[in-house]
Specification:
Helix content is about 15%, strand content about 35%. The chain has 17 helices and 44 strands. The strands form 7 sheets. It has a 16-stranded antiparallel β-sheet that branches. A hairpin with a 4-residue loop joins β38 (about 880-885) and β39 (about 890-895). The radius of gyration is 44 Å and the shape is elongated.
Length: about 1000
């Protein structure tokens, strides 16, 4: 600056009685708290310019005044003779200074002494000192920064306007609700601030934290007396992540205007605290926090006692100070989880209405702009806004159509919202245009500030709401009254606030459309109601955890979950006890912890709101306050399961030699191996002959279960129906009859009987087979069917339903041939005598012990074949259910069905001795239910193998004849039983390895070696 040759041009700085250095115009100095600082004027050539006319008076009557450096521009705008209260009150001068708003806010004399302490209001902020005789701003000025040592100097919550005697809660009662996110304001001094070496030489050692690198923060929830309520911190991380000022700056450079940094910590009022910390007998509860900042390298810790009730800050007008009420605590009301979640949705709805999303139809021209908005759910991308999309030049605005997402409460669903600028319809998308990248900004609906980058585009903090005539109830009533006074129209007239552009002209004035009122802020009183509320906070979203903003690609990514209400309340109990009889019948005994799912069934049938809303305002001057909205529905499916297994064979036949061999003993209730096998043959034969009259023996299961994403357990309703219900289930036997007819089972059985009895077939192969002790069994289907219905999204983004079917038939039909080698051996000598002796020993042991001792032995070969209905992924001898999925909105069907054939052989041999004791005294061993095995001894071996052929859903299509072949190898299983246990210790050894291959069964031969 130009050299000062007349008047005051310098002063001396004295620290604790020692003259430190000379201050010249535009110097920057530190003032250290706890020390005496004196600024001294002397009548010498260093202090005064050579053309000073009255040096002695100039020094003696000098004036000292200072103001926050960043408010100097406001001082210069102050009209002459008007006072600006932002100057420091230094005791008051005699005469009023007419310039810069100083008035009498100055100190007069040759010396100004400052003794700053650690709690002075000017601590940590740069101030501009003016030293003058008559007119400030023409002579000596310098900047000083008062510093102490690193510490937290301020911590508080916004003051709530609450009624401590409240009787009934409402949306506007002032209390916070569980599920909300509120701000915890913290200000630090010199955390961090790097002191340059030149100042260290002048002032000596100064305690400092030079960078953010090692600074971490930890916050614990406490009661109002600062007793910690939860062991784990509610916030823990890098300090740098919580300062909006630092985030907006490039890197971690701190503004030269302060040594203080403000932080905003999002405090999530966790619903888990309810009923754990905050019990039902407390209508409201006061919470607070403890904060600790730690240098992880030096282990230095910084804390503060929260006790502030009032703070002073520069008013928004920058013309005065405001004294603002704050609080060291925040108050939360106790409500049921259902009420908490309902209120959250109500508050979101109020915020959405306040934001004021306009339905645009005409393209706007403001240079601060985006052109399109897209939402991507990971599967589909939806364009909800595009100013160039329509052929007629109108704007495509589908922001009123919210996108549907299905999510659970364990894994978050990522939703990416992107805004881009287009020069024209076919142009490559560019970054959004704001003041940050050099485009003119008119500061529309941005709190009188320019849109400065993507954080001002995706407004997740405070937002200025947009006035919409269509939502103004006062305007609506005025038009209604005017309409009532107007002459009767000749034809029906559309009249409604949401359709104001088509409303009639009343009193000579056409009502403005919403778009014509673009950029008009909500009235001040409406803004005031939302002043302390952030867009993210009202949705329970925390930056870094629930959303991230990416400046490089103009996007914000939400990580959304569906918040289930897993509490059990009277609404569910009343439904289950009163409207249904599940509890009274004891079907929920094992599922109390899952009863919360019934709430969503009630909501479903009651047509109540199931979704949870999330939204991001997207705003620039061209299209302010558009909303990208997402509705999250629960990832929950109600599944109907049906299991049907027919135990009675479709067809059973035992050869005469087999029946004759096992008819040699009539031991009554005495159990031997011989008797057990005879009863099995007899029962199957009788069941087959009588099933036409009494129905088939079945196992039938029907139940409903609720599948919830992320939950390990599901709730089941229903019981298995057992043997006693088989007559009732006869109408379901159409499946068996259908298979019987289609596969010709009855015809085959009749033909078999004819062949066996025909004189011409009494020789040859039929005669030899008939002479063997064997049985043939045709097995009916074992069917499992599941139908699940749940909410789903669609390609259009709308909510719809999805039906999922799971089907398995294992088998569709099967056959089993069993050759009894013991019965066969009885025909040959000497084996027959040995086998007869074994039969006799078995019978005698059981007879003379009164049923206490059983000797069992088996030796048979069994060959079985089956055809199964299976799903994709089946193979290697494994059967998986077939899956079918149908989306009602998209009308799309997906799924796969396949067939699998299996041939299996088993050679079985075993011998065992079992000794029983009675369950109760004075009971007979004759009844099976009275026995309890006490001691067993036995040995057995079984060799098994199988071959499967699996046909996929595409088999036979487009000349595809490939099938998956699998040979299971040969496995030998040997087991032994000894001791007082029912368990057998089995060992399996694969003596021939398995093999698998793909073969074309029609075009060429498939060979597996």
């Amino acid at each position: 600056m130009e050299e000062i040759r007349k008047g005051i041009r310098a002063c001396y700085h004295e620290i604790d009685g020692t003259k430190a250095f000379t201050i010249v115009p535009d110097s920057v100095i530190y003032i250290l708290s706890g020390r005496k600082h004196r600024f001294i004027l002397e009548n010498d050539a260093t202090v005064l310019g050579e053309k000073t006319t009255n040096p002695k008076t100039t020094v003696a009557e000098a004036k000292w005044a200072f103001i926050l450096s960043y408010l100097w521009a406001e001082a210069k705008k102050t009209p002459q003779k008007e006072m600006l209260p932002l100057w420091a009150d230094l005791g008051g001068g005699k005469d009023s200074v007419e310039f810069l708003g100083i008035d009498k806010q100055y100190k007069q004399g040759s010396i100004l002494e400052l003794n700053p302490s650690s709690d002075d209001v000017w601590l940590g902020n740069y101030h501009r000192m003016e030293v003058f005789s008559h007119i400030p701003g023409k002579g000596l000025f310098f900047h000083f920064l008062t510093i102490d040592k690193p510490h937290i100097y301020l911590a508080y919550f916004d003051k709530q306007k609450v009624d401590p005697e409240i009787k009934e809660f409402s949306l506007k009662d002032g209390y916070y609700s569980y599920g909300e996110v509120i701000k915890f304001h913290v200000a630090t001094h010199m955390l961090p601030l790097k002191i340059s070496d030149q100042y260290k030489k002048q002032y000596g050692k100064i305690e400092e934290e030079p960078s953010f690198k090692d600074l971490e923060v930890e916050i614990h929830i406490t009661d109002e007396n600062h007793k910690v309520l939860k062991e784990d911190p509610i916030i823990k991380g890098k300090l740098i992540d919580y300062s909006p000022a630092v985030k907006d700056a490039a890197g971690v450079n701190i503004s030269s205007g302060t040594a203080n940094i403000s932080y905003e910590f999002p405090i999530f009022i966790d619903p888990k605290w309810k009923d754990d910390i905050h019990t039902k007998d407390q209508k409201t509860k006061a919470y607070s926090v403890n904060i600790k900042i730690t240098n992880t390298k030096t282990k230095k810790e910084y804390t503060i006692d929260l006790n502030q009730n009032k703070i002073r800050k520069v008013a928004q007008s920058k013309r005065d100070f405001d004294d603002v009420d704050v609080s060291p605590v925040f108050w939360v009301k106790y409500e049921s989880m259902e009420t908490v979640m309902t209120r959250m949705e109500q508050k979101k709805a109020n915020m959405i209405q306040y934001i004021g999303d306009i339905d645009y139809s005409i393209r706007e021209k403001n240079p601060c702009a985006y052109s399109k908005i897209t939402i991507n759910d990971g599967k589909n991308e939806y364009e909800i806004f595009n100013e160039y999309a329509n052929q007629n030049g109108s704007v495509k605005d589908k922001s009123q159509n919210w996108i549907t997402v299905i999510a659970g409460d364990k894994d978050a669903k990522e939703i990416k919202i992107t805004a881009k600028y287009l020069k024209d319809k076919d142009a490559t998308p560019e970054n959004v245009r704001t003041a940050k990248n050099g485009y003119m900004c008119q500061m529309i609906l941005n709190d009188d500030k320019p849109h400065n980058g993507i954080r001002d585009v995706f407004k997740m903090d405070w937002i200025v709401g947009q006035y919409k005539p269509s939502q103004d109830p006062k305007l609506f009533m005025e038009r209604i009254l005017s309409f009532a006074k107007a002459p009767a129209p000749s034809s029906p007239m559309v009249f409604h606030p949401s359709n104001s552009d088509k409303a009639p002209k009343l009193a000579g004035n056409k009502a403005p459309t919403d778009q014509e009122m673009k950029g008009t802020p909500q009235p001040k009183e409406v803004q005031e109601a939302f002043k302390g509320v952030s867009v993210s906070g009202i949705q329970g979203l925390q930056e870094g955890t629930d959303f991230t903003i990416n400046e490089s690609d103009d996007s914000i990514t939400l990580k959304l979950k569906y918040q289930y209400n897993k509490s059990y309340d009277d609404k569910i109990a009343n439904y289950l006890y009163g409207e249904q009889d599940y509890l009274s019948k004891g079907l929920f005994n094992d599922n109390y912890k899952n009863l919360w799912v019934i709430r969503y069934l009630i909501k479903f049938f009651g047509n109540e709101q199931l979704h949870q809303t999330y939204f991001v305002p997207v705003t620039t001057c061209r299209y302010p306050n558009q909303i990208a909205g997402i509705r999250v529905f629960p990832d929950m499916k109600w599944v109907f399961n049906f299991n049907y297994n027919i135990e009675t064979p479709l067809y059973y036949s035992a050869t005469t030699p087999l029946e004759e061999y096992y008819s040699g003993f009539s031991e009554g209730k005495i159990n031997t191996q011989n008797n057990t096998t005879r009863k099995e043959i007899m029962n199957k034969t009788v069941d087959n002959r009588l099933q036409h009259y009494v129905g088939r023996k079945t196992t039938f299961g029907i139940y409903v279960e609720c599948e919830v994403s992320g939950e390990d357990d599901v709730i089941k309703l229903g019981k298995d129906f057992n043997e006693k219900f088989r007559k009732m289930l006869q109408p379901l036997f159409w499946m068996v009859n259908k298979i019987d007819g289609d596969l010709g089972v009855t015809d085959a059985r009749n033909e078999n009987n004819r062949l066996q009895n025909a004189p011409g077939t009494q020789k040859g192969l039929m005669a030899r087979l008939k002479a063997l002790p064997m049985s043939f069994e045709l097995n009916p289907p074992n069917i499992g069917l599941g139908l699940a219905i749940g909410l789903a999204g669609s390609e259009s983004g709308r909510q719809t339903y999805e039906l999922e079917g799971r089907l398995i038939a294992d088998p569709i039909i099967g056959a089993k041939v069993k050759l009894d080698i013991l019965a066969l051996g009885s025909k040959f000598k000497p084996w027959g005598a040995i086998i007869d002796a074994l039969d006799l020993v078995s019978w005698l042991a059981n007879l003379f012990s009164g049923g206490r001792v059983e000797v069992n032995y088996e030796l048979y070969f069994e060959l079985s074949a089956s055809i199964k209905l299976i799903g994709e992924g089946s193979g290697d001898g494994e059967s998986k259910p077939a899956n079918i999925r149908y989306n009602f909105e998209d009308q799309s069907l997906q799924g796969s069905l396949g067939l699998q054939g299996e041939l299996k052989g088993i050679l079985h041999a075993s011998f065992s001795l079992k000794i029983y004791v009675k369950n109760e005294k004075n009971k007979s061993f004759e009844a099976e239910e009275n026995k309890k095995k006490s001691l067993g001894l036995g040995i057995g071996a079984e060799a098994s193998t199988s071959v499967t052929l699996t046909l996929s859903k595409n088999f036979g299509k487009k000349d595809d004849w490939d099938a998956d072949f699998y040979f299971a190898g040969v496995t030998l299983k040997v087991w032994a039983e000894a001791g007082y246990s029912d368990k057998t210790d089995a060992k399996s050894v694969k003596i021939i390895p398995d093999a698998k291959s793909t073969i074309n069964i029609f075009k060429n031969k498939g060979e597996v070696k």
